[in-house]
Amino acid sequence: MKLDVRIHGRGGQGVVTAAELLSVAAFEQGLHAQALPSFGSERTGAPVTASCRISDLPIRSHDPISQPDLLVVQDLTLLRDPVVMAGLPEDGTVVVNTNRDLADLVHGGLVVGPAQRWVTIPANDLSRQLLGRPVPNTALVGAVAGMTDLLSPEAVATAIRRRFAGLGEEIAEANVRLAEQARDLVMTTTAGGDVRC
């Protein structure tokens, strides 16, 4: 078993933190994992990429993920950049932070492979409700857990509590609830099968 996740977002959205949370949650379950940040210009709003490898075997590769099994897109506008979709296989999975549904995105010109699984989730909206500001990373970590059924809710919650412990229990628990809500939403959305167009 292995899962290669590549996360695309903008500075300030917690892209690197999302990769770290996925890897720590994997460690909590006894899996091998690594988080790999990749920075360009390090400023708020600039495109940022991070990756996470998860495996039940030791991980020998330390290079950036060029062919992800799963893409997380934290900012919908990044889908205009062909680099974001580069390397995604025909049967790859994509989780997109947006309150628009997939049919609306396809009508707007998004090209979706016939065997790809796509899920849209309003991570910014959920984050505003629970945190008071649009920081989508923990919601999208919960969504990845729901899409893959690889990481348990308990492992994700432990990773979040550990990461946000210094910010206070209230903030940590709000982020745990955010991840749980997103996970439940994704699992409900995909219960009838793959989300495709």
Summarize the structure.
The protein is α/β, with parallel strands linked by helices and 197 residues long. Helix content is 40%, strand content 20%.
Number of strands: 6
Which regions contain 5 or more consecutive residues with pLDDT less than 50?
Answer: 192-197
Can you list the strand order of the major beta sheet? Answer: 2-3-1-4-5-6
Major β-sheet, in short? 6 strands, mixed
Question: Helical amount among residues, as a percent range?
Answer: 25-40%
CATH topology: Pyruvate-ferredoxin Oxidoreductase, domain 3
Average pLDDT metric: 89
Please report the number of helical segments: 7
The ordered H/E elements are EHEEEHEHEHHHH
Query: How does the overall form come out from the CA principal axes?
Result: globular
Beta-strand portion reads 15-25%
Distance between the termini: 27 Å
CATH class: Alpha Beta
Computed Rg: 15 Å
Class based on secondary structure composition and strand pairing? alpha/beta
CATH architecture: 3-Layer(aba) Sandwich
The CATH superfamily is identified as: Pyruvate-ferredoxin oxidoreductase, PFOR, domain III
What is the count of structural domains?
Answer: 1
Describe the structure.
The chain has a six-stranded mixed β-sheet. It has one domain: Pyruvate-ferredoxin Oxidoreductase, domain 3. α6 packs antiparallel against α7. By secondary structure, it is of the alpha/beta class. 40% of the residues lie in helices and 20% in strands. The C terminus is likely disordered. It has seven helices and six strands, in the order βαβββαβαβαααα. It starts with a strand and ends in an 8-residue tail after the last helix.
